[in-house]
Write a structure and sequence with these properties.
about 200 residues, alpha+beta, Beta Polymerase, domain 2, 2 domains, six-stranded mixed sheet, two-stranded antiparallel sheet
Length: about 200
Amino acid sequence: MHEAPDPLRLELAAAAARLIADSGLDYAGAKKKALRQVLGDRSAPKGSIPDNDEIDAALREHLELFDADHAQRVARRRRTAAALMQRLRAFHPYLTGAVWKGVVTEHAPIHLQLFHDNPKDVEMELLNEGVDFEVSTVPHFRSGAEVEAIGFYLDDAPVLLSLYAHDDVRGALRGGPAGAERGDRAALLERLAQA
């Protein structure tokens, strides 16, 4: 028997989804702001904070209702990602994040995770192609330690490349509760064909 959904949890997920869609907040920031909006100064009851999968479901629903361009944006960003993955194939790219999941707000980047032992090779490739990029860091998908990230725009789409050691790909391919968290170019082309 399934438990009835917690109304507060659903409300918080919907509020966080609106913040992600409208303001471009990340999931952690959206959860914090949603808690303040919905609960004010009160603390959240145990078990009422939605997880990212619940926020994804609320975000998908929000975008389908209020963003007439959503389906076309998903398809455009996925085609752009497939072309970029082909260009960067030497670095073993995998698509993850919003574009992989199909919940693409205006602000959501094409997030490629590259599995190659020398980040400088990626930077040199981009410099040789004349790409103007910024270097930052993001948390490792498994350990939380910082890894190098490269951000730039390709046409009108924001792109984020996070750089991992080649051996990290072994732990990357396990699926989570919502299915695979990333996919290679072949898996992305399969998603494009199904749309």
